[in-house]
Specification:
Blueprint: H1 3-24, E1 30-35, E2 41-45, H2 58-70, E3 79-81, H3 84-87, E4 101-103, H4 104-114, H5 117-128, H6 131-144, H7 167-180, H8 182-185, E5 192-195, E6 198-201, H9 206-209, E7 213-221, E8 225-233, E9 238-246, H10 249-264
Helix pairs in contact: 2-5, 4-5, 5-6
């Protein structure tokens, strides 16, 4: 597909979502769990219902970051300028100040551990020139990965009624990260981050409480509820689970742990 045709296609998708997406997407409960080796759906509820991704969006921002690193479009130690637009993104951010710089490595680890919005925007603006252009790149990549119901409009997952996804699509993205970037995927198990002498603890509590859990990403907005994409292994089987629309972080984590127990054998002690 040429760039012009891709742009026309994405414009059509955006028009359809603008027309129908906000009335369809809701903070509804949905979940799916897959066998990571075969892709087999082990259990699903509302897996194809449109919801809001919140910061699960950063999984795609990270996918495109890893792709750019492999293609040598930038390197881990390259420095990204923090624009005024990036600096404005609340609530989670490095807050280094507009005009200052962070490394690509810091941006990646910030997105993984702290869900830093300014880092996501800095990457997007560097790779595509603007958040809007990066949103088109994200959506085009989503289509290539088989994510047929997802539209991305910004790299951080900040509220936008046109930015939508499904549990099934987020599971496909989790599998794609494992498959296409296995070495970088290992970073998703990181629970703590030191940024310029400041120490931070990550948002993904399941990494510390569930044996065998090794990723991937949490998300929350008022519109989405509490979201989680996670993977875990018992040594012989690996699964990828998605929970959307949780009432609280604890409730969401508990649901994911119960799914892991069901398909990996009880490990959580619950």
């Amino acid at each position: 597909m040429t760039y012009r045709n891709a742009s026309l296609f994405l414009s059509s998708v955006m028009a359809l979502v603008a027309a129908f997406g906000p009335t369809q997407a809701f903070a509804g409960r949905a979940h799916v769990i897959l066998d990571a080796n075969t892709g087999q759906v082990l259990e699903a509820e509302n897996a194809d219902v449109i919801n809001y991704p919140a910061s699960l969006t950063k999984m795609m921002t990270l996918y495109l970051t890893f792709e750019a690193l492999h293609q040598k479009r930038f390197g881990w130690d390259d420095r990204l300028v923090m624009s005024e637009n990036a600096e404005s993104k609340e609530p989670y951010k490095f807050a280094v100040g507009a005009g200052n710089k962070i490394t690509v490595r810091e941006a990646v680890m910030g997105m993984i551990v702290l869900s830093t919005n300014d880092a996501a925007v800095a990457v997007a603006e560097t790779l595509a020139g603007s958040e809007q252009a990066f949103g088109h790149m994200m959506t085009a990549k989503a289509r290539k990965l088989g994510m047929t119901s997802t539209v991305f409009t910004n790299p951080a997952g900040l509220p936008d009624p046109n930015q939508v996804t499904t549990a099934a699509d987020m599971a496909r993205l989790g599998l794609a990260l494992m498959r296409d970037y296995p070495e970088e995927y290992k970073l998703f198990s990181t629970t703590r981050l030191t940024f310029r002498s400041m120490k931070f603890r990550g948002h993904n509590n399941l990494l510390s409480t569930y044996p065998g859990a090794d990723g991937i990403k949490t998300g929350y907005t008022k519109a989405s509820g509490y979201n989680l994409v996670s993977s875990a292994s018992n040594g012989t089987r690996r699964v990828v689970g998605v929970v959307l629309g949780g009432d609280s972080a604890a409730e969401r984590d508990g649901q994911m742990a119960a799914l892991f127990d069901k398909y990996l054998g009880a490990q959580s002690g619950q």
